[in-house]
Write a structure and sequence with these properties.
By secondary structure, the chain is α+β, with helices and mostly antiparallel strands. It contains 2 helices and 4 strands, in the order E-H-E-E-H-E. A 4-stranded antiparallel beta sheet has the order 2-3-1-4, with helices on one face.
């Protein structure tokens, strides 16, 4: 599954936080534009969930994360909770 993370600031730090996570595993794919990154997300066997919400939770849990405006969507969504 692909997840798109959009942020004007701290993109390198966001990428590092997500890539260090083990389950789900976020692997950087590419930049979609100067502010938006795309990650391939995989879960360990027998687990699943909402990788977009979890990514946002990981970002917001950082000391600098609570002040960032971040949009995280599953690739193909127009807004959080929308059709994929």
């Amino acid at each position: 599954m692909l997840v798109n993370v959009n942020s004007a600031l701290k993109r390198d730090e966001i990428r590092k936080v997500l890539e260090e996570n083990e389950n789900p595993k976020y692997v950087y794919v590419k930049n979609l534009n100067p502010m938006e990154m795309q990650f391939e997300v995989t879960y360990a066997d027998g687990t699943d969930g909402d990788p977009a919400s979890y990514a946002k939770k990981l970002i917001k849990s950082q000391p600098w994360g609570s002040v960032l405006m971040v949009r995280v969507l599953i690739d193909g969504q127009k807004f959080t909770g929308g059709k994929v």
